[in-house]
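Progress against Task 2.4 (sequence-to-structure conversion) is shown through the following example record, which the project officer requested during the mid-term review.
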Amino acid sequence: MSLRDVIVQRIASGPLPFAEYMELALYHPELGYYARGDQRSGRAGDFFTSVDVGSLFGEFLAVQIAEMWQVLKTHSVDASHIDLVEAAAGNGRLSRDLLDAMAAHHTDLYDAAGLTLVERSPAARAAQVATLTPHLAKLQHSMESLPSQVSGVIFANELLDAMPVHPVVMTDSGLREVYVTTEGPDSEGLVERLGAPGPDVLDHVERFGIDLEPGWRAEVSPEMVGWVESAGSSLDRGFLIVIDYGHEANELYSATHATGTLTTYQQHVVRSHGAANSGTPPWLEEPGEADITAHVDLTAVRLSAEAAGMQTLAVVDQTYFLLGLGADHMSEPDDPVSALRRRLALKTLLVPGGLGSTHKVMIFGKNVGHPELKATGFSHRAT
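Structure tokens generated for the chain above:
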């Protein structure tokens, strides 16, 4: 049975909220996009992340966590252990880069660290052991959801943009939600239809004061808010680092994004709602074969984190995050070829207009006071 067949069977009981369709397309345990591969990014994949640049991003993250470790040691009863939890860990590449850097440059942190990888894809979890072979003694858990108690750092790179979203449209008669249903002679063609918004959507719109003009389309994600709140609940003491692309609400829900931000990635080809004005929207064409993503509401993330008992320490472009950690005076290898590769990797991570400005770094703390971290030196600046 194909994923399309599964979806059509679900629709037999009534149209699916788009968020439920997206959940199936990405995370069906056997047929979903992420379930069928242990790595989806990189040159051979469908999109490109900071981790695909090489080990450099993990090295900078190690610098930040080492500083957080010093803060934690002044607040923690047990200064001999720190929990490191990567959410949406995939096959463990970022954690491997992080542990490599810690072992080389932050040995006290490395000795104290215990790693938990959180990943929904069975294929990716199965690949983690091979990825982390040099550091298997550090891998304490590989699981599908966040642990119940964390004293340390939870970090997630490009998790929230892949959370299921509810597209909504403001019509002359009020807010409507996008559903997925079927049409055609065999009732197998997938199409969008507008319907009454569900109570979770209405609650979200009211809670965050989202105001749309007639004709505007946007995406909201109560599921994302739920994850942020669960991270705050899991964190006894420590930090949450979230890296993703998105906008504050006043920009996300504006004329600039009046057609929404829903996008698919397949073999590095990007298709958005503008391509859906005629024919089938790209996210309905081949369920399970392409990544589906939407820009993150940074305002909702921040307010949800604060409601869960965390303090906002930084909201900053990735460029300024890395500069705050010393990217402008990092050491280089003696080998000229290696040094050139490192400079090119750093340029990819930093340059405005690319990963440096599209990706935002949000840092939250819980029960650690309000420390002035190096990476927060450029807080609230935007490229």
